[in-house]
Amino acid sequence: MKNILLVSPSRNYPMGNEMYPSGALLLLGMMLREQGHNVKVVHMVADKVDRLGFYGILRDFRPDIVGFTVSTYQTRMTGILSMGVKRYNSDIITVAGGSHPSALGLDFLLSFPGIDVSVYGEGEVALTDIARGVPFRNVKGVHYRHRRGGTLGTNAPPPLLTTEALDALPLPDKPLIDFKRYSGLFPVGRRPCMFVMSSRGCPYQCSFCSKSVYGNTLRLRSPEGIMEEVELLYRDWGVREIHFGDDTFNANREWASELLDLIIKRGFHKKLVFRVALRVNDKILDMELLRHLKAAGVWFIYYGVENGDQDML
Ligand code: SF4
């Protein structure tokens, strides 16, 4: 068993509150716990942990592995803390994943000397392998620093998680975080508010969009599996608004309609409100789908107008 500290670093600019917990850290934390590891999750903004507080956690928790989820707006603190971890104990393995390391590739390790391994794309297989002690050179989907000599290496990606694999992932475990500390996304329809990833990937090719983590291959969770998560969030977390955080909720119309039907059939259109992101495209968005969304309790839609220039799409 290893002690594994998972961190969502504070932002490069001042921020008073955090809207949602990191879905990646919740999921990875659950998977690592199921493997028998001792996991602690820290969101620096929501948990009001500053640099000194982080070093206190490091001393008390004594992690074997520290994992950072890194979006571009979290790079500054990631650099500071990862160097701090290495100065404290160079045997601690430092891992970074998320959109920024995925987009930068090997360059990420050049810019972050305190990080041993950067995970690109979906991180479930890589992080659980690292926790099991698999040598870096055999972990799929990572760039890494050789522990002796510091030269860099790159491994091939793992296969994308299939629909069946996504359905088999653990559901979010509340004890990993204090849910009261998250404000939800403005404007909040009802509180408390939480997001659900019901699919991964987007099949469209907008040239300005990186999609560095989930890629181009659309994979849809089963509507039944999604409803299991919706019911858990309603019943155990007390959630009253759900944000389907998919890149494009209407990428597959039939699947979206099936999910909306299930929401209505189970009565959740009266218990919850929902928000979704839709692509504006006359083949997948029309009045019939909009009426269906409204009937299922969707109150807020992000329209991805994407671009006014057809060549960019
Ligand atoms: S539709 Fe949205 S998520 Fe998909 S490629 Fe375009 S901008 Fe990215």
Short recap of the structure:
The protein is 33% helix and 19% strand. With 313 residues, the protein is α/β, with parallel strands linked by helices.
Which blocks of ≥5 consecutive residues have pLDDT under 50? Answer: none
Summing up helix and strand content along with how strands pair, one would put the structural category as alpha/beta
% residues in beta strands? 15-25%
CATH architecture of the largest domain: 3-Layer(aba) Sandwich
What is the CATH top level name of the largest domain? Alpha Beta
Major sheet details: 7 strands, mixed
Mean pLDDT comes to 93
Q: How would you name the CATH homologous superfamily of the largest domain?
A: Cobalamin-binding domain
Number of continuous helical runs: 11
CA distance, first residue to last residue: 47 Å
Radius of gyration: 20 Å
Give the helices and strands as they follow along the chain. EHEHEHEHHEHEEHEEEHEHHEHE
Question: Percent of residues in helical segments?
Answer: 25-40%
> Largest beta sheet: what is the strand line-up?
2-1-3-4-5-6-7
Number of strands: 13
CATH structural fold name of the largest domain: Rossmann fold
Q: What's the overall geometry?
A: globular
Catalogue the ligands: iron/sulfur cluster
- Domain count: 2
